[in-house]
Queue: 2 jobs
Job 1
Amino acid sequence: MYNRMKTAAAEIRKLAIQAMAAAGYGHIGGSMSICDVLAVLYEKILNIEPKNPQKKDRDWVVLSKGHSGPALYAALAYKGYFDKKELLSLNKNGTNLPSHCDRLKTRGIDLSTGSLGQGISLGMGAAYGNKIQGIDSYVYIILGDGELQEGQVWEAVQFGAHHNIDNAILIVDNNKRQLDGYVEEVCRQYNLRDKFLSFGYQVFEADGHDTKDIYEKLLKAKATKKPSAVILDTQKGYGCCFAEIEGFNHYMVITEEMAQKAISEIDKRLKRQLC
């Protein structure tokens, strides 16, 4: 099971890199840091049917850090929501895969996101609506640590606590960096665990690049029957050799040569992990 998730993470990384290379650029850093959690969600956690993406009791994924769309598109293509070849149209005229996620364009996208801070509000509202209707499903909301500087995030967190929205699970991609530099230098976030605890959330922490750890913490979050947050300790650009060593990897120009080198390295790393 765990090898399957590791393989999925590698494939999602490769597909996302190929998509951005075809465009010539992309939000590489934050896309790479969430590939492992996407692999866990789409391989083992989510109640979904790619051939019936609007089924009423499906689990939802809301990418509040919407600029990491290439990773989510890659996960959707990997699971069969649409042909992998469509990834090569990323950000191009007439594409169904715009820079930020659009539910009206992309099969498998549950909510449109992009403007930071708004995705969690939409996701929390969706979870609350499903709960009121008695729909047995979960909404997984992926946030960036830099995004947590938005005040709207904490309004949504408070709303979730007040209404005991236990079918919404917050996932924080704590990669320590944002567009303008390190989060601690731009606007210190202090102790994330304590902040969520102060709102009455159950908080779990995991190595964001260890699929087994992520899987186990997500299961615990589901079992709490209380609003919960899973904080992932991640590295921006993780798994992509040229992005890992780049100081400013939020958004990069990406050539086919860079992509092929990165994909080759991903295959080598996966082989070592599966031994």
Job 2
Amino acid sequence: MSEETSTNPGGSSGPSTRAKGSNIIAIASGKGGVGKTWFSITLAHAIARSGRKVLLFDGDLGLANLDIQLGLMAKKDLGAVLAGRASLSQAVTFYEEGGFDIIAGRSGSGALANLAANRLQALLDELALIAVDYDYVIIDLGAGVESTVRRLAYAAGRIIVVVTDEPTSLTDGYAFIKITHSERPDSDIQVVTNMANSTTEGERTFNTLNKACQGFLKFSPLHLGSVRRDEKVRGAIRAQTPILNKYPESEAGTDVKQIARMLRRPQTPDGG
């Protein structure tokens, strides 16, 4: 555990007074290949290192791979839950290297991607019950804007859209924001720029996206920050270990730690 500690996780109220879903963060992307799952893992780890209790939920029901990135062999996963062989709480696995809990998906299987709406709602209801025992629940969503992805996202109190400077990432990220803002205007949508060549370039990428949001949606998401391009990310993924363990002083890891601090800062009414 790092030097960052707190006795009042997230500055939040206790489970009895916390609004349903307010401690749930959904990590989204309009397309694959933007580093969403790596960011979800690293964010969960960064928050856990500050003394918070964190659950990382693999919500990519089509191509779950959280456990693969971490080299984790979960005894029970979402497949077992949906088959009726385990409850959601029984599928929780403690990831000792990161100091946080994980609910793994069914790796390598697309069988859960087209989950019936009633089954998905039952899953979300169970997740909401579990969430009260955590300071933060982070959902690694599937890429894209499919209805299952959106239903999972809407269970969260905050949605973070991960984008890169690639035109397709910005276009698809904008599409996700547009649909979400249209269907749920009160959604707290925020943006992280990943694989940025520099912090300045990351800001420039966000400004391109934000210009479209302001121009067409009359809405401006908060930019949480940028994660710089870092070859050590690839090394950590290959080693199936969190970057904050393998390369604790890496630029990308440092950037995610800063974003984690931003998330833990109490928000003012104007979103600051």
